Amino acid sequence: MLLLPCPHCGLRDEPEFSFGGEPAIRPVPASTVDDATWADYVYLRQNEKGAHREIWCHSGGCGQWFVLTRDTVTHAVIAP
């Protein structure tokens, strides 16, 4: 089982968390962004092997969102 380090609650089992995707810069201003750009922002992900930044929410605990770096091959957490 994957253990994730919540910055507020410490190490917890992965089922307590909700995956939020990879951190991305939201296209702005929203009123001028075309549909193709929004689709890329919402649906396209790099899905890289190796170290990857991810957004997680401790939904089964404190409810806080945080970013961590995790190796997508070994699932090892590199940096909270």
Provide a concise account of the structure shown.
With 80 residues, the protein is mostly beta strands.
Distance between the termini: 18 Å
Q: Which stretches of 5+ consecutive residues score pLDDT under 50?
A: none
Give the helix proportion (percent range): 10-25%
Count all strands and give the number.
6
What gyration radius follows from the Cα positions, in whole Å?
15 Å
Number of domains: 1
CATH superfamily (homologous) name: Folate-binding superfamily
CATH topology: Folate-binding fold
The averaged pLDDT comes out at: 91
General shape: globular
**Count of separate DSSP helical elements:** 1
> Major sheet: size, sense and barrel closure?
4 strands, antiparallel
What strand order characterises the main sheet? 3-4-5-6
The percentage of residues in β strands lies in 35-45%
Query: According to CATH, what is the class?
Result: Alpha Beta
Order of helices and strands: EEEHEEE
CATH architecture: 2-Layer Sandwich
Structural class: mainly beta
